[in-house]
Write a structure and sequence with these properties.
128 residues, alpha+beta
């Protein structure tokens, strides 16, 4: 998960009962496997003393920053969103390295073309 990120900032008040998502996400970031995936990723923990809701802010390697409300978003959901965006970034990078334009634009006429279906081999054998 951290390989797609350059910075993670976790903010919470330790006395706030809504910090479960922050604590779980912090544990995931501190895991050995996560740290090894991107040792350059900065992990900042800000312990607040006010009533500000728990928040997780991530900065992707391309500079895009996204903040998550940790009171209503489970850590696993945040992790899944990061992985999905990370796969998108990897795909974009592959296209750019190959000299292809990004984003890929599929012509409208190709989208409307019919697709010949394929039948599983077992279904064809049963007919005989």
């Amino acid at each position: 998960m951290l390989k797609f990120l350059s910075k993670v900032k976790i903010e919470f008040n330790a006395l706030d009962p809504r910090t479960a998502s922050c604590m779980e996400f912090l544990a995931q970031c501190n895991a050995r496997q996560a740290k090894e995936s991107n040792p350059a990723c900065q992990l900042q923990v800000k312990r607040r003393t006010d009533d500000h809701p728990p928040q997780i802010t991530v900065t992707f390697v391309n500079g895009v920053e996204e903040a998550f409300d940790a009171t209503s978003t489970p850590a696993q959901t945040i992790r899944t969103m990061i992985l999905e965006k990370g796969q998108f970034l990897e795909t974009e990078q592959m296209f750019r390295e190959a000299g292809e334009k990004w984003p890929v634009i599929i012509p409208e006429e190709e989208l409307r073309q019919s697709f010949p279906g394929t039948k599983p081999r077992k279904a064809e054998e049963k007919k005989q």
